[in-house]
Amino acid sequence: MKIGTPKEVLDGENRVAMTPDSAVQLQKLGYDCAIEKGAGHAAGFSDEAYEAAGVEIVKTAASLWKNSDIIAKVRIPTEAEMKRLTKDKTLISFFNPAGNAEGMELAKSKGANVIAMEMVPRISRAQKMDALSSMANIAGYRAVIEAGNNFGRFFTGQVTAAGKVPPAKVLIVGAGVAGLAAIGTSTSLGAITYAFDVRPEVAEQVESMGAEFVYLDFEEDQQDGAATGGYASVQSEEFRNAQLAKFRELAPEIDIVITTALIPNREAPELWTKDMVESMKPGSVIVDLAAEKGGNCKLTVADEKIVTDNGVTIIGYTDFPSRMAAQSSSLYATNIRHMMTDLTPEKDGQINHDMEDDVIRGATVTHEGEITFPPPPPKIQAIAAQPKVEIKELTPEEKRAQEIAAFKAQTKQQFTLLGVGGALMLLVGLVAPASFMQHFIVFVLAIFIGFQVIWGVAHSLHTPLMAITNAISSIIIVGALMQIGSGSFLVILLAALSVFMAGINIVGGFLVTRRMLAMFQKS
Amino acid sequence: MEFGFTTAAYVVAAVLFILSLGGLSNQESAKRAVWYGIVGMALAVFATLVGPGSGLWLLSLLLIVGGGLIGQYVAQRVQMTEMPQLVAAMHSLVGLAAVFVGFNAHFEIGNVAQVMAIADSAKEADLSDLGAFAKLIAKKTSAELAILHVELFLGIFIGAITFTGSVIAYGKLAGKVSSAATKLPGGHALNAAAAGLSLICLIWYASSGGLFPLILMTLAALFIGYHLIMGIGGADMPVVVSMLNSYSGWAAAAIGFSMGNDLLIVVGALVGSSGAILSYIMCKAMNRHFVSVILGGFGGPQGEQMAVEGEQIAIEADGVAAALNDADSVVIIPGYGMAVAQAQQSVSELVRKLRANGKNVRFAIHPVAGRLPGHMNVLLAEAKVPYDIVLEMDEINDDFPETDVAIVIGSNDIVNPAAQDDPNSPIAGMPVLECWKAKQVFVSKRGQGTGYSGIENPLFFKENTRMFYGDAKQSLDKLLPMID
What we know:
The complex is a heterodimer.
Chain A: E1 2-5, H1 20-28, E2 32-36, H2 47-52, E3 56-58, H3 61-67, E4 70-72, H4 79-83, E5 90-93, H5 101-110, E6 113-116, H6 131-150, E7 158-160, E8 163-165, E9 169-173, H7 177-189, E10 192-196, H8 203-208, E11 212-213, H9 237-250, E12 256-259, H10 274-279, E13 285-288, E14 305-307, E15 313-315, H11 320-323, H12 325-343, H13 358-363, E16 364-367, E17 370-371, H14 396-431, H15 434-455, H16 462-473, H17 476-483, H18 489-519
Parallel strand pairs in A: 1-2, 1-4, 2-3, 4-5, 5-6, 9-10, 9-12, 10-11, 12-13, 13-15
Antiparallel strand pairs in A: 6-16, 7-8, 14-15, 16-17
Chain B: H1 3-22, H2 27-50, H3 57-77, H4 83-118, H5 132-138, H6 142-173, H7 188-208, H8 211-230, H9 237-259, H10 262-285, H11 290-294, H12 317-326, E1 329-334, H13 336-341, H14 344-356, E2 360-365, H15 375-382, E3 390-392, H16 393-396, E4 405-409, H17 418-421, E5 440-445, E6 465-469, H18 472-479
Parallel strand pairs in B: 1-2, 1-4, 2-3, 4-5, 5-6
């Protein structure tokens, strides 16, 4: 079968869904590759490079769509493009199925199969084809670079001969893939980075990237993001207020804000209000990665950079990945290639559209003339990290009270034990003869000594300990030796056997212990 | 020689034994500690041989030397990986000896009674041709005799359980008996019945003093030992071995009571408490109750276990080598699989190479790794791994997030994150080595199975985990030339 990639028709879209590298890999799966003339040009891949990789160059989009069995592209196809689909063709692309009912109807009527790259489920196995993540990664990186471009100062703090430069303070709202990428970029540029997310379990990831997690003083069981497939969901009113209050408190100090908060299939939540923008210092920069969905800041204008009256720059570009077309094309093409690998289990150049497979089923929006969106929930849920139970700091008085209570409980326990033990002892003493009690004292004291001594034994020496206790437990030989002088033959025989066995044990036990201990060496 | 001398020798011997156990608190003083034990034992045997009324000392000496030669042969021949079997086998000897000595005590009581019956009164009885122990018995009052009966009964009972239990444990550890937990139909009811029978025998014996209840009880105890240990799975062996260790001590103490010998009592109590503490430490390390280990099978909450997502990703030796060459800090987690594959020498060689390159290489040892408490430490020591880079779980668990590469060699449950994440896992709550927090984890494992306990391990499915399939020794030998 033939995989074809047309030139993106949307203005300003520089990406391309196939690179020379990915074409080589696709050919290994048994496919023929074709690309529209000049499709990779904007992303820095020349037609010659494609030809060298064995890709057929097709002059016009029309003949490419006509001759390809599988069409891989980036942007949501236009109506004109959709009309070129026919039965048995498979389209792999971003599709936005939730907001593209007409597109799905059209695909259904054409009988084509459509795989929407944004519908790839968020499970580990599917990460290699998760285009949203790879694009978000680029967007996060680019957002920081774009902010730096519009920010008149250094990110890192410096003390130079020409004066002291304070480090920039960056706040990143939403620690998804884009947020984390932005955190990484920002910290490596040297800025003091703060990050916030509604899912408290990502605090660990945030801190691992070197940023400081902004905690809210909010007393409610925060919901578990993993229950919604790893995405954030809508928050309660109280939570939102607590969150806004915290941001309001931070706004005057922050130089750069990067908002990445998106909730699937909803308008972006407003997180950075007008008054926060107004309280920011002149020269500050806001990058709103949610601009496409209305923006986390309502002043944001999609696809534009504006400067507010108080000198705050708000960047609302929606095409960050396209601005790094070479990078994003190669990542996206790899995602597509992995999708094709899953679709071609036999590596024979034939698609096996397995609707039983969680990943393929999830991403498919139309299949054989049926709309298959929305997909059933995946069989495997992302594993939720257990919410950490915060250990409450105790005041010194509480600690003291606890210690006293624990001490009292311990004293009480010891008294009861001693009392019961003592009473039992006395009872035994009433019946038992004196000679027994003498031995009994020795016995009890020996147990006490044993307990004291053994706790001190090093963990690593437990095996030698067992060997040596084994050797000295053959002290039973003493008993046998006392009996061997008896007149009775049976007694002598049994005693002799015991002496013999204990002899094996004594020598064997001690020698083996010595052998082991001799091996322990310091470096 | 006088009785006073023997007692004095016993006191010195007891002190030496205590010092010997106390000396095991660190590796250096441990080497001295063994000598304390040897001297103590020699002193005790010597004092008993020359002590009042012992006879046939030549025969005794010959037997000790003969036994000693066998012991020496075994001790020098045994492989370090076979240490668990050896220890178990030796316990069985102590148990059997305790049974014999206990029976002897019973026969002696009979003999003394016979002699005393012939003579009219105890004072006139001619006890000269009986041994030292017989003279001791002759002095006893009837109440003391009753207690004596109970004591020797207990000694035989514990000794018999230790004997068959250790034999089965030996069989399981040596792979001669299936390591799976198997029970006869009736399960623990059989054990309870045997224990009940023994209790009846005790009352019977204490009142009659006959031989028959004693033999009946011995058979019951032998059965308990067999059946109890058969019902315990291979993964719980560390607890079993230390428990049997404890029993052999209690048996010696009980015999000591019946012989009226303080040294036996002291040493028995020392060994008994040592084994008990070891069992406790092992149980704690597995977050299991002692009772549930002894009764076999997994206890704890049962329910739907978390499904494991993802796939196990395999890696070849060159990938592991590349990661190791790049790493600065490496932690190695050995388990029973390393012992099985005899890979400790290769591991040691790997460590030597990595350390020569200035990398920080350490070992993380879980308390229940292997089949014997401290098993891994002994194996690594044998392979000349310096003990100061071999760390306990608590010492190293916090360091995993800063570790570049963690290598898991033949261990499974002790690195299972389900113990922390999944409240329904059979091992939930067991402390584990948090190796998945390392930047990269390599697991050397024979195949994709679930291993000894049959519990799925989500570690193998984690994103930063790569599976290095194959026999541990062969895998490491393949890896070694690629480390520069």
